[in-house]
Amino acid sequence: MRDKELESEIRSQQSEVRRLVTRYLSLVTFLLVTCHLSLVTVIHAERIKDIANFEGVRDNELIGNGIVVGLDGTGDKGQAAVQGIVNMLKRMGITINANDLKSKNIAAVIVTATLPPFAKPGARIDALVSTIGDAKSIQGGTLLLTPLKGPDGKVYALAQGPVSIGGFAAEGEGSKAQKNHAAAGKIPEGVTIEREPPFALGNGNSIRLFMHKADFATANMIAEQINNALHGGYAVAADSSSIKLSIPDEYEGNIVALISKIELMDVRVDMTARIVINERTGTIVIGDNVTISPVAIAHGSLAIEVKEAPEVSQPLPFAPEKAETVTVPRTEISVEEQEGALVQVSGVTLGEVVRALNALGVTPRDLISILQALRAAGALRAELEII
Fold first, then answer.
1. Does 279 lie in the same domain as 240?
2. What are the CB-based long-range contacts (under 8 Å, 24+) for 27-30?
3. Does the pLDDT value for residue 37 go beyond 50?
4. How confident is the model over 162-184, as a mean pLDDT?
5. CA-based nearest residue to 212, from 151, 254, 285, 267
6. Are strands 274-278 and 383-386 parallel, antiparallel or unpaired?
7. Which residue among 100, 159, 248, 331 is buried most deeply as judged by most CB within 10 Å?
8. What span, in angstroms and rounded, lies between the C-alpha atoms of 218 and 226?
9. DSSP assignment of 290-335, as one string?
10. Which range among 109-123, 164-178, 299-313, 325-339 has the greatest average pLDDT?
């Protein structure tokens, strides 16, 4: 009797242990799922510095015309580069006739560079060198001192140095070998900044934040995030692409600290449902918010094949002198149309949309036509952007 009671008690304890373990595992699973969802939310959030920039923080483009020397017979054949050399030598006190200077070792080029915001004199940036004449290659050449000007006509930097094309070009009498584009090159850190560009970071009491992609919902969320972090109504969305921010009193004279704090804030970006199509390459990019209403699709391709097999008819031996060799055309045309059955397509999430479109088993170019037809039918909930 005691054994039965003992066995019953053991079973009861085992049942209680299993119940506790089940509750514990359920709690752990719930915590893991919660943590995962929290991490997903953080991962999909974007920093403000990645989706917007402050007023006045921008690049400036520079341009100048120069001369590349030291080429191995691959320079300009005309007189454009020669005249530049003559003018340079004249400034150095050397007078020479342009007709007496005939060389294919020089090339006239255009030099461009991008001046970053807040660039200081003495800093160095990269230069891009591109030929403007008929030079075949600027491999191994050296750019002579070239002033780079801004849109206002002022010189902001100087460029000089050996040109790197990242490849080669060589040719002989009957063959040619080339890697990369030999008529353009780069001078790493070949530009020295000489003048600091003017800039205005706000107007003293306020500053504006410009978004890279205009969107009312995202602009409003950025303003709310800034106000929550600064504990006040300092930010307001002026329109779909700009947020106006009043500078708090504690950041007067220390606007850099305010900007750095705002740039590191995470904001959930509300993306527009969009499909980007490149018809030249057949590339299709589908966004996350794209959906397809239930619709039936039947798509079939029409293949037309034309074969040309001309036959030559020659005159027989001892034929009359007027007999000629005649080419008789032979053309074969075949037309094949594939059968297309109706397929139901629908999708709410991106994964469902991809699986539904893959079920059609069509090529990317056929898929472009199907997407355009879906948009025309009103079943595609997205914008079609053709580039």
1. no
2. none
3. no
4. 74
5. 267
6. parallel
7. 159
8. 12
9. -EEEEEEE----EEEEEEE--EEE-PPTT--TT---EEEP-EEEEE
10. 109-123
Residues 130, 80 share a domain: yes
The mean pLDDT value of the chain amounts to 78
Is there a domain that residue 47 lies in? Answer: no
Task: Write the single-letter amino acid at 240.
Answer: S
CA 27 to chain centre: 45
Number of other CB atoms surrounding residue 197 within 10 Å: 18
Note the pLDDT of residue 353.
75
pLDDT attached to residue 155:
94
How many domains in the chain?
3
Task: Sort residue 319 into left (φ over 0), alpha (ψ -120 to 50) or beta.
Answer: beta
**Helix, coil or strand: residue 17:** helix
Please report which confidence band the pLDDT of residue 28 belongs to, taking 50, 70 and 90 as the band edges: very low
The 8-class DSSP code of residue 72 comes to S
Contact 193, 120 (CB under 8 A): yes
What is the rounded average pLDDT of the residues 126-142? 90
Q: Say which DSSP state 190 is in.
A: E
User: Residue 73 has what pLDDT?
Assistant: 83
Say which amino acid occupies 127.
A
Q: Do residues 345 and 292 lie in contact, with contact meaning Cβ atoms separated by under 8 Å?
A: yes
In angstroms, how far is CA 118 from the centroid of its own chain? 25
Report the candidate in 365, 337, 359, 331 with the shortest Cα–Cα distance to residue 347: 359
Amino acid letter for position 342: L
Q: Quick check: is 239 in a domain?
A: yes
The CA distance from 50 to 83, in Å, is 47
- Which residues constitute the domain of residue 230? 206-268
Nearest Cα residue to 156 out of 57, 58, 61, 65: 61
Query: pTM above 0.70?
Result: no
Whole-number Å distance between alpha carbons of 353 and 367: 12
